[in-house]
Sequence to fold (124 residues):
Amino acid sequence: MNSRTRWILGCAVLLAGLAGCAMCGGGHHEPISREERAGYPSEVSHLAAPSDTGHYTGYLVGGGAARHADAPEPLEGTWGWDYCGYWFPSRIVLDWFHGKYQGGFGAYEQDGPRPVEQFEHRND
Fold:
């Protein structure tokens, strides 16, 4: 197939597609509500399921001691939700050990390593 034939065939396909689009969108449409346009965000899907199956527990997350520990102080930890086991319940709620400071604000990185930035600073 030479280039002229391909060009003509491409134009024909493009025109057929544009004609089809013009035929589909030409009718009068009823105005839709804001809820319908947004996909009904205030309704719960019939596929939604509760996350609490009875095998989860909520507690102050952040402790690091399984034994010989204290209760958290008022400014320690954050509220969390964790799986505690089904057949073999595990001890996931750890208590606080105030003998060793394990970090604080900014102690845990949210992102992983950035090799591109490390490479750029290596050449400085």
Summary: The radius of gyration is 30 Å. The longest helix spans residues 3-24. Residues 54-103 form one domain.
